[in-house]
Each structure stands twice: as C-alpha cells, then as structure tokens.
Amino acid sequence: MAFTCNIDRRGRTIRFAIGVFMETLAILLGVMWYFAWTPEWTLWPAIAVWLSAMFVLFEALVGWCGVRAMGFKTPF
C-alpha cells in the first residue's frame, strides 16, 4: 500500500513537534510508573500515548495524514 503525500512541509513540521511532545509525555509517564511515583494503572495511558506518538511521527516522516486520507479538511 503506497501512501500519497497529502500534507505540506508546515503540516509535517507540526506533526513532528506533536509527536516529539507525545513521546516525551509517554516516557515521563513510563518513568513515573517504573519508580512507583504514580498508581499502577499509569502504565496503560503511557503505552497508549507512546503508540499514538509513533503514528504521528510516522505521519510526519511519510508526509501523509490519516484524517485527510478519510476526506476531512485539516488546517495544517
């Protein structure tokens, strides 16, 4: 399956910044869980945020937006 580029450089940059922020948040949650500074259930949101960050970074790398591919118009 080929991904057709459907976002410009600005959209890729914004998605990259969002992905890095989400990755940082996921790592922070994981570290807090590891040292038992937060409840045990904190691991699951950390995993969900990390997986979402990986998808957003993939979008930035490829230049493809999943929401745009479904037909919605996005500002970036």
Short description, anyone?
The chain has three helices and no strands.
State the helicity in percent bands: 55-70%
Question: Which class of secondary structure composition applies to the elements?
Answer: mainly alpha
Counted up, domains total 1
Alpha-carbon distance between the termini?
24 Å
Provide key terms for this protein.
mainly alpha, 0% strand, 3 helices, 76 residues
How would you portray this structure in words?
It is built from 3 helices and no strands. With 76 residues, it is an all-alpha fold. It has one domain. Helix 1 (9-34) packs antiparallel against helix 2 (43-62). The radius of gyration is 15 Å and the shape is elongated. The two termini are 24 Å apart.
Topology:
Blueprint: H1 9-34, H2 43-62, H3 66-69
Helix pairs in contact: 1-2
